[in-house]
Amino acid sequence: MKEWISRCEADTEQAGAELAGMLSAPCTVCLYGPMGAGKTAFVRGMAAGLKIRDIVSSPTFTIVNEYPGNPELIHFDMYRLSSSEELFEIGWEDYLAREAILAVEWSENVEDIFDGSEVRVQIEKLSDTGRRITAEGGGQC
Q1: How confident is the prediction along the chain (141 residues), in pLDDT tens digits per residue?
Q2: Parallel, antiparallel or unpaired: strands 119-125 and 131-137
């Protein structure tokens, strides 16, 4: 398990960059934390750590954003999904087959699709700006 204490959004992004440097594709990163915890900031950091220069934004309304790179980063937001069946309708299995890093916000909404080989990132709010970020698992990454 890896743990970071973040005092600000930049620290959260740095933690994401550090984690990205430890990963190899294909890999799924499940992100957990309340609204406003910094999940998208963490994914922005992952993109920076993967040397992706695109602007990373939350895919809340589009469900998925793809960022080309080597490896590619595919960013999901499951907040608006009511079941994992909806995820399969948009091609989840096709995304899994790609040599990519998948970052999944609101993973608890589709928990039944994961097999335990994913990296699980929990972001806990300590204060308005403080966060405890823990990462564990990742047998396939």
Answers
A1: 899 999 999 999 999 999 999 999 999 999 999 999 999 999 999 999 999 999 998 887 789 999 999 999 999 999 988 788 888 888 999 999 999 999 999 999 999 999 889 999 999 999 999 999 999 997 778
A2: antiparallel
- Write out the residue range of the structural domain in which residue 39 sits: 2-137
- C-alpha to C-alpha distance for 125 and 127, rounded to whole angstroms: 6
* Residue showing tokens 């699980």: 120
The CATH number for 49's domain is: 3.40.50.300
The total of structural domains in the chain comes to: 1
Distance CA 45, CA 16 (A): 4
Burial class (CB in 10 A: 0-12, 13-18, 19+), 59: buried
